[in-house]
Amino acid sequence: MEKTIRKYTELFKDELCFRNIPDAEGKAIAYAGRLREMYASEEFRNFNIYPTVDTVKVFAVIAMCLELRSYGFSDPEIIDLVNHAFHRIRKMFSILLGGINLLPNSYHIAEKWNINDHEKRVKDGSLTYDLFDVSDGKIEYRVTGCAYVRMFEEYGIRSLCKIFCLTDMTSYAGLTRHVRFIRHSDLSDGDCCHDEVIRK
């Protein structure tokens, strides 16, 4: 776990330096201490039960959010800062999406991914759906319960779960040739995550 703490602390420190935030070294040390305590907590043990959720990463992001909140950053500033901190990690995934986007069957790949993900999420209980409908050229779903939201809510920062809610939008932004993604609402600031994935 110490290796993981060092990895996320470096990400956090690099972003603070990039933004010219004073005392990046001291703030990074404080972040590492907070994250170490969170990983040792009962809350972490209670949430680290879902095979489809990288709880280690989610808690690392929550710790970043809590530290940034303590400096007086607004929610939009925190979301922007944390997203940028992870941009290098997401680069390889973006390259993969770019390749899939060129394929004529990219919608069917997205469809299969959604069906498989739904099955796994229902099985492990990380997401609760009140709708999951697959028709010819369209998938529509509504998620009313979410482990990610519950984790952020546990620390009083539900609105900042938007960081993870935006992941789908970022992914589908790389699949625009044959796929249209519509997000009607998400659970960070609404009562459900309501999405449509449509074949173009």
Describe this structure in words.
It is built from nine helices and four strands, in the order H-H-H-H-H-H-H-E-E-H-H-E-E. Helices cover 60% and strands 16% of the residues. Helix 1 (2-18) crosses helix 5 (75-85), helix 2 packs across helix 4 and helix 4 (55-70) crosses helix 5. Strand 1 and strand 2 form a beta hairpin.
Helix count, DSSP H or I runs of 4 or more residues:
9
Envelope shape: globular
N/C terminus separation: 44 Å
Report the β-strand fraction as a percent range.
15-25%
Poorly predicted runs of 5 or more residues: none
Helical proportion, percent range: 55-70%
Give a short account of the largest sheet. Answer: 4 strands, antiparallel
Mean model confidence by pLDDT: 92
Strand order of the largest sheet: 1-2-4-3
Q: Could you give the order of the helices and strands?
A: HHHHHHHEEHHEE
- Radius of gyration from the alpha-carbon trace, in angstroms: 18 Å
Number of strands: 4
Class from secondary-structure proportions: alpha+beta
In short:
The chain is α+β, with helices and mostly antiparallel strands and 200 residues long. It has nine helices and four strands.
